Amino acid sequence: MLSKIYLLGMNGQVQSSRERLGFTNSTMGLFSGFISTDRVPNIQLATTNNELPVDDSNVSTEVDSKVKTKLLSMWNNVKYGWTIKVVKTNFSKESPVCLLGKIYRKKPEEFLEKASEAEKTLDTGSEISLAMDAISFEDSIEEFKKDFTSRLWLTYRREFPILNGSTFTSDCGWGCMLRSGQMMLAQALVCHFLGREWRWQVDQPLKTEQQKLDEYNHRLIIKSFGDLPDSTSPFSIHTLVSLGALSGKRAGDWYGPSSVAHLLSQAVEQAAERHPVFSNLAVYVAQDCAVYLQDVENVCQMPDGKWKSLILFVPLRLGADKLNLVYASCLTHLLTLNTCIGVIGGRPRHSLYFIGFQEDKLINLDPHYCQETVDVLKDNFPLTSFHCTSPRKMLISKMDPSCCVGFYFHDKMQFTNFMEIAPSYLVPEDEKVDYPMFLFCEGSGKDLQQKVENAENTIPTTTSFTGNGTYDDDLDECEEFEVLQ
Q1: For the Peptidase C54 catalytic domain, which residue ranges apply (predicted)?
Q2: Catalytic residue among 368, 370, 388, 404
């Protein structure tokens, strides 16, 4: 595929590399019909005086690498439809839209107009007012748009510092699950530092102290995901790739949802040790579709008895080769909870971050748009590339069965309430299936594992451990337990 891209020819190639690749004037600009100039800036050809000497192999190799990265990112954006003018996603006016626990409905304008006219003809409008209050939905589609654009959008980036142990300066083509995981963690941090009700005020003056504090925390969260190997970005792709290397993963490898959940857990634990701002945050990853309450208490309870805020990741496999649709309603029900921070999954080898739904379609943030790296160490770095204005939807029936659901609990009471209401969401309605998506279990998963290891007959498991406490999904990209009909 790459050779075909090279043959098309791209503006921006230095002369020496163009000639070695066999470019001619007739091959230039064939991409122009596919590339939107407002999405991908045009790059000017180098002049003769600026040509690189052919015998300068080191510089020439570096140029070739940059050109290759640029071509791949542009081809990726063509492939996933990001370079053409974005077509607006259609939303039904009749059906409510759910976004991470918030329900948005179209306001019944015609009824409100009629009710308002009727109210004027009455001596007292109390009865009509009550009726209007009953059907006058507080949240509208416009509010949904504000909510959606306030979620953090973390995508492929190019031309960032080389990833440790590799020559990669872009994650284009392989880092989508890592980016999806970053977005889910970012939503947890938004809830933790800003609150679920926070909305990004685009180009609005910061008048109050609270607005200034929110802006500071907004930038702090984005900075923590900056694409650079710096201690101020503890959740960068550089950090995640380095942590993955401890489990035998390399830059360029594809990650499953469960593997990413464990990497995020390690990254938060590491960040809490180095940065006090994250010290009140804990992460627990469910084991084999089970949340062990003693393990949760161990990671959350502090020496003084207080609880840390908890991020809960539950890796699932809802079917064999494709999604078992009896669990589709369970997924959408979980997305209606205000403690849910979304689902990472997508289609096979095509990760997406699901944050809501309408009818039988899941609303998602797509990490596959490759953008220029932003230097988050600069003061007032631009924020627009970290927020998406174009919601996308996908039929839930097309979702890959391997996924990971995330939750955020500010305190122990929220987690306790979740344990009380969650069981009714985890078993399919009107189906002859009584096995829940996941369970809450007393005790510790480690203790149970030890008992199993000491028993004469061990219980078989589909989860593969590498022996160092990490998961190995090289042979099976989706290593979690399967929940079947």
Answers
A1: 142-420
A2: 368
